[in-house]
């Protein structure tokens, strides 16, 4: 089974605008909740564009295919942008989900019920429904795109048993409302694991000072792509070229995903064991050890050397295959230099927008 993902045309539209017009200088609205009321919190559109791009890069490299709703691809494919290269290679593929709209409608409506956790959100959504039924217009178009559209894409994910990478504003709504996506996702588990490992390494290196110690929270794969690309126009091309380098990891993820779909406990434990092995190896590499087996840390060639009495077989396993790939991603760069390079690609280094993008991906260690 292909390890595909359902993705939003809205995300590809924002990425296309990023490549053709640069980082946007306006703000978008994140739906937030306060008691039984909801409101819109301003968030930089440039940050939303960047998050969409980083998600897209990870999917380009580690998914077999990215499926988008065929009916709405006009929002991005009529404009010449690097995304068209991914479409021409078949990595991004339009699919006629709405040819079976009746299958999607029921799950979509139930998902909306779960997301609408406040009375104000329910009432606002109902006004959109009434407006659409009356004159094909929605009074709150942003809410419609975020909630109604997001629920529809979640329903596609559920019905067709595919993972879903939501647009950043939809992702924020799901998180803020407490809604969980319907499909388990091996890649999401892997990227969360890599993020946690990168944070651990950063804390070890830079300490925990609340004022001066911070880390850049960028996924590992976009860091690699930014390192290799010389311009914004090369980001998608570079990601596509890296697919060959990460074929083994993509195959591993496919087996991991299939084990999830089949609820194969024994296989799932095997995959988790491999991740645990990487975790233990990284702990030794950065100097985390038990009291009776202390570990020292030495700096060398940008990566840490090991001085430990740990399990030599596990150490050896982490030098090859998928485990070695994951270790390289964890130690492949903290992201600080890469983020500055990224905003420079769009001519925004040192600008207000550049600062906003850098700040949004910076967190206290």
Report on this structure.
- The chain has 17 helices and ten strands.
- The protein is of the alpha/beta class.
- It has two domains: 1-183, no CATH class; 184-365, no CATH class.
- The strands form four sheets. The protein has a four-stranded parallel sheet with strand order 5-4-1-6, with helices on both faces. A two-stranded antiparallel ribbon has the order 2-3.
- A hairpin with a 2-residue loop joins strand 8 (296-300) and strand 9 (303-307).
For the termini, the CA-CA separation is 39 Å
Shape: globular
Return the string of H and E elements. Answer: EHEEHEHHEHHHEHHEHHHHEEHHHHE
Mean pLDDT comes to 88
Q: What are the segments in which pLDDT stays under 50 over at least 5 consecutive residues?
A: 294-309
- Count the E strands: 10
**Major sheet: order of its strands?**
5-4-1-6
Q: Helical stretch count?
A: 17
Oligomeric state of the chains?
single chain
Tell me the β content: 5-15%
Rg, alpha carbons = 22 Å
Describe this protein with a few key phrases.
alpha/beta; 2 domains; 365 residues; globular; four-stranded parallel beta sheet
Blueprint (SSEs and pairs):
Layout: E1 4-7, H1 9-21, E2 27-34, E3 37-44, H2 45-62, E4 65-69, H3 74-77, H4 83-88, E5 92-95, H5 101-115, H6 119-135, H7 141-159, E6 163-165, H8 168-177, H9 186-206, E7 214-216, H10 220-228, H11 235-245, H12 247-261, H13 265-286, E8 296-300, E9 303-307, H14 312-317, H15 321-330, H16 336-345, H17 352-360, E10 362-364
Helix pairs in contact: 1-2, 2-11, 5-7, 9-13, 10-11, 13-15
């Amino acid at each position: 089974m292909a390890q595909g993902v359902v993705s939003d045309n809205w995300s590809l539209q924002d990425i296309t605008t990023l490549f053709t017009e640069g980082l946007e200088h306006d703000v978008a609205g994140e739906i937030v909740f306060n008691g039984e009321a909801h409101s819109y919190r301003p968030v930089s559109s440039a940050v939303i564009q960047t998050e969409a791009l980083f998600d897209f890069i990870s999917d380009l490299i580690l998914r077999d295919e990215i499926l988008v709703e065929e009916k709405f691809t006009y929002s991005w494919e009529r404009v010449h942008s690097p995304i068209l290269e991914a479409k021409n290679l078949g990595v991004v593929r339009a699919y006629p989900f709405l040819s079976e709209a009746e299958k999607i409608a029921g799950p979509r409506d139930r998902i909306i019920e779960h997301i609408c956790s406040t009375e104000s959100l329910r009432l606002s959504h109902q006004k959109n429904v009434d407006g659409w039924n009356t004159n094909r217009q929605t009074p709150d178009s942003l809410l419609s795109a975020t909630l109604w559209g997001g629920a529809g894409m979640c329903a596609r994910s559920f019905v067709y048993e595919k993972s879903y990478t939501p647009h950043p504003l939809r992702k924020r709504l799901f998180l803020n409302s407490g809604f969980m996506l319907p499909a388990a996702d091996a890649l999401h588990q892997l990227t969360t694991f890599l993020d946690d490992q990168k944070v651990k390494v950063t804390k070890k290196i830079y300490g925990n000072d609340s004022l001066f110690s911070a880390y850049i929270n960028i996924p590992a794969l976009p860091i690699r792509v930014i390192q290799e690309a010389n311009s914004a126009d090369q980001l998608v091309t570079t990601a596509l070229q890296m697919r060959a380098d990460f074929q083994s990891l993509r195959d591993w993820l496919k087996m991991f995903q299939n084990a999830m779909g089949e609820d194969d406990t024994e296989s799932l434990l095997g995959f988790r064991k491999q991740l645990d092995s990487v975790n233990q190896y990284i702990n030794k590499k950065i100097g985390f050890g038990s009291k009776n087996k202390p570990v020292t840390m030495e700096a060398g060639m940008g990566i840490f050397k090991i001085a430990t009495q740990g399990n030599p077989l596990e150490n050896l396993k982490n030098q090859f295959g998928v485990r070695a790939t994951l270790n390289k991603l964890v130690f492949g760069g903290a992201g600080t230099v890469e983020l500055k390079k990224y905003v420079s690609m769009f001519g925004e280094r040192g600008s207000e927008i550049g600062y906003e993008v850098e700040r949004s991906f910076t967190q206290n260690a």
